[in-house]
Write a structure and sequence with these properties.
Largest sheet: 2 strands, antiparallel
Strand order of the largest sheet: 1-2
Oligomer: single chain
Radius of gyration: 15 Å
Number of strands: 2
Length: 161
């Protein structure tokens, strides 16, 4: 199981074996790939603090059909990717943390854990209406958007339809 954020206790849980899988099974190794994954989970904490997690959960309870519920989940996950990019922008400006190839590590990690890629690896084909985290392209684009602008206001995945 990969890392996850628990809103009840406001903690991120990490199975460190996930990073081995990320590197060996998905070709996404490196410290900045790991930092992206952790920053994504902290993005969920921000969403919890902002009330976004609760709003999405309520919206998911109101809508009919798994496809729409999944779409809301994708928007939530892409926002967390964008928040990870915002963190990367500010961390690099403040601490000069990006080494040569670091940004590429994060982008490869984002692409490697897109629903389309994971489903194709697992079953040979992808079923878009079942996606819960977004495509590889979407995940890369939203992380890059946050990284480029460095503003949480750039991360409105719900209004950006």
């Amino acid at each position: 199981m990969g890392p996850f954020y628990c809103p009840e206790d406001r903690k991120v849980y990490v199975d460190l074996g996930f990073f081995d899988d990320l590197k060996h099974e998905h070709g996404a190794g490196g410290d900045f790939a790991q930092a992206y994954v952790l920053a994504h989970e902290i993005g969920h904490h921000i969403q919890n603090q902002e009330g976004t997690l609760e709003q999405v959960q309520r919206a998911q309870q109101r809508v009919l059909g798994d496809a729409r519920k999944n779409q809301l989940q994708v928007q939530l996950e892409l926002q967390a990717d964008c928040y990870a990019g915002v963190w990367a922008n500010h961390a690099d400006k403040q601490f000069d943390i990006l080494e040569v190839g670091g940004l590429e590590e994060a982008l490869v990690a984002a692409a490697s854990i897109g629903d389309n890629r994971l489903q194709k690896q697992a079953q040979g084909f992808a079923i878009p209406h079942t996606f819960t985290h977004g495509t590889s392209k979407q995940r890369v684009e939203w992380f890059a958007r946050g990284m480029k602008g460095g503003r949480l206001s750039d991360c409105d995945t719900f209004g950006d339809q």
